[in-house]
Amino acid sequence: MHISRRQFAASALTVYKLAGPKPVLMAAKPNDQIAMGYIGSGIRGSYLIESFAKTPGVKPLIVADLFDGHLDWAKETVPGIETTKDYHTVLARKDIDAVTVATPDHWHVRIVLDALAAGKHVYCEKPLTWSIDEGQAVIDAQKKSGKLVMVGSQSKTSPWILKAKELIRDGAIGKVSMVRMVNHRNSPDGAWVYPIPANATPQTIDWARFIGSSPKIPFDLKRFFRWRCWWEYSGGVATDLFVHLLTGMHEMMSVQGPNSAVAQGGIYKFNDGRTVPDVLSVLFEYDSFIADMNVNLCNARGNGSVITVMGTDATMTFGSRGELMVEYEAPRPALEAYGLNGWTKAMKAKHLESLGFTDGKIPRNGEQKPAKEVKLERGLEHYEYFIESIREGKPSRESAEDGHFAAGAAHLGNMSYRRGKKMKWDRVSGKVSEG
Questions:
Q1: In sequence order, which residues have a C-beta less than 8 Å from that of residue 138 and are 6 or more positions away?
Q2: Which of 46, 125, 314, 342 is surrounded by the fewest CB atoms within 10 Å?
Q3: How far apart are alpha carbons 224 and 75 in whole angstroms?
Q4: What is the pTM of this model?
């Protein structure tokens, strides 16, 4: 009896786990030192300062931030570092090779464009943009400058995403029809209700610079420290949490962005004056599959972020503990028997004979595929690839184009939520329309 490769697939589980120590960048010679400036030293900015400070060949020289407390932390953490509240001071220094941008979203593009014009390489925290129409300007400026732009979404360079891309490309899980992505939380920190420092006052914060080109409003500590809660400065859960997942999904599926999005959501728990939703569900339509994305800040079921890729032969899941699992579809019989219910014995036997089964019996299921565990090689940390690309002239591992399309998908979902309409995106022309 002939049984196809698909029929041999079984509900066995293959688990991919990391193995071995993490590689490190090679130590640089004195003339290979990369002088860094940092724009923003809050939650993410402080992480980048500490991380790059441990990277071989990186010299931290100056940091800009709008809050004296953050600048005090920088001086305490990196002895001898200079500080300023004006990011232009960082960009004006001729000895700075590269900068990080870890500011509220509404400042990202302006600072990135200024940094490229000043001849600096740029590592920008995700999302790259505050609105869907800003991305092309960054792409054009990067090409004109010849400098490196790398976006900090982390997932794109992870060994799990790269392995998943290989499996999907090689047809190991069959044809993918749906990708489901969730990121659930249930805590004040998870909903950006961060503590406010006691020394935060109008005298220690440059409020006017924080506001920038957004609507002018009176001094507000909540907006300054919890800026992700307002549309004026952020895209909420979509640009904070969706973008991590979208970046990785775009990489493993080898796609740029969706054709359309439909969204539902609302504020269900955190009625603290915020305008962005704390629950959001978006259905994205790509050329050959559907992506279903959900974020719930009111329930932690699922323990964080999970991606599920559904193929015709197997399901691939990124677990909350970091492992990549491939669970094969249950083996199918060579002949589906359910549809023969209600047939007479004679009709059933004749049908089986026409298919080459002459003994009159329904063929049994195929054999099971054995379970196994596969070790993955560790890669560099995401930010370390930025230094590698600068030093060795390699392409950005998360380019301006990557950042634009991941953020653009999130913006499209937000537009659908806010307008109550299905939104379409022509990524070639950049046109967004209802429909």
A1: 109, 112, 113, 128, 129, 149, 400, 403, 404
A2: 342
A3: 21
A4: 0.92
The span from the CA of 366 to the CA of 333, in Å, is 6
Average pLDDT, the chain: 91
**Cβ distance 16 to 323 under 8 Å?**
yes
Per-position b or e across 386-411, b if 16+ CB within 10 A of its CB: bbebbbeeeebbbbbbbbbbbbbbbb
In contact, 114 and 91? CB cutoff 8 Å: yes
CA-based nearest residue to 305, from 120, 201, 401, 180? 180
Residue with tokens 């066995």: 12
- Residue 324: is it exposed, middle or buried by C-beta count within 10 angstroms (0-12/13-18/19+)? buried
**CA 342 – CA 353 distance, rounded (Å):** 18
The Cα 116–Cα 245 span in angstroms is 27
Query: Which position has the token pair 């099971």?
Result: 368
Q: Structurally, what CATH architecture does the domain formed by 7-19+156-330+370-434 represent? A: 2-Layer Sandwich (3.30)
Sign (positive or negative) of CA dihedral 80, 81, 85, 86: positive
> What are the boundaries of each domain within the chain?
7-19+156-330+370-434, 30-154
End-to-end CA distance of the chain: 51
Tokens of residue 387, six digits: 């230094």
Angle between helices 382-392 and 43-53 (to 10 degrees): 50
What are the pLDDT digits (tens) for 228-259?
Answer: 999 999 999 999 999 999 999 999 999 999 99
Nearest-angstrom CA–CA distance, 306 and 309: 10
The CATH number corresponding to 30-154 among 2.30.130.10, 3.20.20.300, 2.40.50.100, 3.40.50.720 equals 3.40.50.720
**Which of 382, 433, 410 shows the shortest CA–CA distance to 52?**
382
Angstrom distance (rounded) from CA 61 to CA 50:
13
